[in-house]
Amino acid sequence: MIIMRTPKGWTCPPQVDGQQVEGTFRAHQVPLPAARTDGTHRAVLEQWMRSYRPEELFDESGRPVPELLDLPPTGTRRMSDNPVANGGSLLRDLDLPDWRAYGVDVPNPGTTSHEATKVLGTWLRDVTRRNPSTYLTMAPDELASNRLQDILDVTGRKWQVEEGRFDERLDRQGRVVEVLSEHICEGLLEGYLLSGRHGAFTCYEAFIHIVDSMFNQHAKWLQASAQVAWRRPLASLNYLLSSHVWRQDHNGFTHQDPGFLDVVLNKDPSIVRIYLPPDANTLLSTFDHCLRSRHYVNVVVAGKQPQFDYLSVEDAALHCARGAGIWDWASNRDDTGTLPDVVLAAAGEIPTLEVLAAAAILRERLPDLRVRVVNVVDLMRLLPEDEHPHGLSDRDFDTLFTATQPVIFAFHGYPWLVHRLTYRRANHSGIHVRGYKERGTTTTPFDMVMLNDLDRFHLVMDVIDRVPALGASCAGLRQEMADARLRARTYTREHGLDDPEVSSWTWPG
Amino acid sequence: MIIMRTPKGWTCPPQVDGQQVEGTFRAHQVPLPAARTDGTHRAVLEQWMRSYRPEELFDESGRPVPELLDLPPTGTRRMSDNPVANGGSLLRDLDLPDWRAYGVDVPNPGTTSHEATKVLGTWLRDVTRRNPSTYLTMAPDELASNRLQDILDVTGRKWQVEEGRFDERLDRQGRVVEVLSEHICEGLLEGYLLSGRHGAFTCYEAFIHIVDSMFNQHAKWLQASAQVAWRRPLASLNYLLSSHVWRQDHNGFTHQDPGFLDVVLNKDPSIVRIYLPPDANTLLSTFDHCLRSRHYVNVVVAGKQPQFDYLSVEDAALHCARGAGIWDWASNRDDTGTLPDVVLAAAGEIPTLEVLAAAAILRERLPDLRVRVVNVVDLMRLLPEDEHPHGLSDRDFDTLFTATQPVIFAFHGYPWLVHRLTYRRANHSGIHVRGYKERGTTTTPFDMVMLNDLDRFHLVMDVIDRVPALGASCAGLRQEMADARLRARTYTREHGLDDPEVSSWTWPG
């Protein structure tokens, strides 16, 4: 590499109007601002242009002379045709192990638990091993915190300088890049993808905002480069966001921000994808899909704490292919030929848990109520089909969510985002969204959902408030729910833990 | 200042289970993870705790011994009560010149032009002069580009090291901090505000995303600190965003991103404010308000290119106090006692221009059509009154925008943001929003609005499509509008400039 340092505006008129231009800030952009109207400036401009001796560089027709045309290299030695600058031309599929072999057994939904990202880590370990020169994981010192440490069984953290006496798992050829700078992680990964390889960036959800602007530019680049015929598609930029807003039990308010999704959704629909897998097997299926995809930005938000398993590998594959679907085992009296009284929808790990717990309460206490439970993994399904390639048709949306019945939607992020996605749907005014409304602190998991009215008890209250046939006739149950919230809050304040009645709940089957 | 560097986990058990802990990563967070269940770990924990000799530090009741209680300083010498750490207690109002004296004359709306931020710069120059120790302007090398260079008439750019031969306007005591790092600008300004002083940060609109995460944390800090009784309110954090999405004629797609507004709106409504003044006088009035406010984040988006003046200083003051209001001089047959056939609403400099040009076409071509023109300066007015302190009541909103008539809303930013703000309004399904939908490139101003269907001709087409009484009966006018778009695009492609018919348009009065 040759680095040449030149004066700013080198070879431009040294002075204009008696002021130094060459080598100063005045050479920025327009050194002769008055050339259009001022004869002196125009003369200086002409003199400047002539100083390059165009008569020696071009022939009569304006074509560069042969001596110049012979200079540039040809073929892939041209800078613009260097394969590394068109990484898609070098890109090869990853050798991916079958994710189903890494899935967890789910004898009954909502009873066994796993750390979803820990399970994903076992698969990523083998992705890393099988693709030793084409797959990297980036992490801002959060690989183990996000439970992906199994990758370190087959590689080390990339490290080129001295090792301390007690350092561990450092490796000059390491396939994990850990550096506590989200900017560096993002920049290195973008470069790696642009040069025709694959990777993922795992980050605390709140802190991925640090690279908002870099993400914006990468998404713009993908959108613009897709219009250039000779540019080949790149591997997608995959974000795995964990340590999310709902489980910052120790870190608190500074670590609670699910707003990266809002930033991502402003970019072109042909480029961006958002997934909210609710358990380990759906996370495996989702990430397998992401690592096979091309020229997207995939954002996956997943939990790292022990959380229920809901779907077997087969069911997870089907559910993720659908993107959004009914969980009939969790629904109640959602019979063919009759509309449900209410749709309980969830997108995200914690909202899914609370919706299921609410559905269980409703099934027990209002057994005649027809409740449809819908789970959304692929958030883009909510958009109209003419606004996003994954968007559901109005017919499919209205079939799933109904065109008329109240929908209580428990969402992982800021609640208005769901409105933004669904405002064109027939049933939009019937969709009532609960999500994170910037109410946070250092507290227990259930206290966090209560602070934002996303908890099971409040969801039951929402159902009572929104289903016309309930309302005043369910005042007693509604009051019980309000009391249950108060009891749970009091328990948290007294014990510093969630009430075991809440934290030991399992799906009743 | 004393800086002491200690080993990580200094004084914790040096080894646990035969592995070095003190001075290594194992001392992070929980050095004895098994202390609850493992007797050996628990014994090590007890030995560790006893190593601090608690019997010498506390008396029988658990109270620190008098020798310790005598150590801490008292009053404002306590770290927590140092006034600089509670900057609001030191905060004094700025000495602000009357902004009206800096306003421009507006003999007729939409005929004379000014660079709005240049006009603001004359006022900020005198704000800077009058408050030489309590007001700073931060800019990432964009002060002059954003047209605030008049401030440099009374101060220089802060600079502490060597000066080059051709450097200008550098000053050890400078009141302008220019450094090409949005992070540093933001960080220095936050520190300045936290220690009880005032300031503003001017930035290219697209690149303020660089500090999304820092903004998030500052907003969270303001929200949380407002709950602490002894903390006094700070001066607001004021952003002046210019060089915005619609006027990146030379820079293009990388510089086109109005999405900071979406990030800001995720934060607590008690903290955030967004203003979109359409001309010079409304910008002056808005910024005067911002510099008087406390404990907010104010985001002001304004133009720097020559743009029409619409409101006199008196009218600007009234309009900004209202936040959103009818421009009766631009409306047509919006008579008392009759609903308008359509509401044309605008928020932002360029949308206001296009809405007025559309209103002029409608007035000329469909003189019987009742058209109400509404301008929104204070974006929070669109929110319900129970969601934001500035929110309009439903009654006021329905009076202004009607509860039944079609609303064509031309918006500065991403169009879905207006839906997010208005989805609870009675007329929400009647609100049709045009805005930036991530269609950008390096092109002329009018080509940019055409790319995003925000241009005057498309707005007229939207009116024809949405007003039931028009539609097929106006097919001829609709076709003329489509043709006008094609003509304008062709002209741009041929001449590299906008069609003078468009660019020299003025309000017909």
Number of helices of chain A: 16
User: Total number of β-strand segments of chain A?
Assistant: 17
Strand content of chain A: 5-15%
Shape designation of chain A: elongated
Can you walk me through this structure?
The structure is a homodimer of 509-residue chains. Chain A has 509 residues and is an alpha/beta fold. Chain A folds into three domains: 1-68, no CATH class; 90-307, Thiamin diphosphate (ThDP)-binding fold, Pyr/PP domains (Rossmann fold, 3-Layer(aba) Sandwich); 335-503, Rossmann fold, CATH 3.40.50. Chain A has helices at 39-50, 54-57, 66-69, 116-130, 182-194, 212-225, 260-265, 280-292, 313-322, 349-365, 394-401, 416-422, 445-451, 456-466, 475-495, 500-503, and strands at residues 15-16, 19-20, 113-115, 135-139, 157-158, 170-171, 176-178, 198-204, 237-242, 272-275, 297-301, 306-308, 324-326, 342-347, 371-376, 407-411, 431-434. In chain A, helix 8 (280-292) packs across helix 9 (313-322), helix 10 (349-365) crosses helix 14 (456-466) and helix 14 packs antiparallel against helix 15 (475-495). The radius of gyration of chain A is 29 Å and the shape is elongated. The model of chain A has no long low-confidence stretch (mean pLDDT 96). The A-B interface holds A 20, 23-25, 165-166, 168, 206-207, 209-210, 212-213, 216-217, 220, 223-224, 253-254, 257, 259, 262-263, 266-268, 414, 416-417, 419-420, 423, 428-429, 438 and B 20, 23-25, 165-166, 168, 206-207, 209-210, 212-213, 216-217, 220, 223-224, 253-254, 257, 259, 262-263, 266-268, 414, 416-417, 419-420, 423, 428-429, 438.
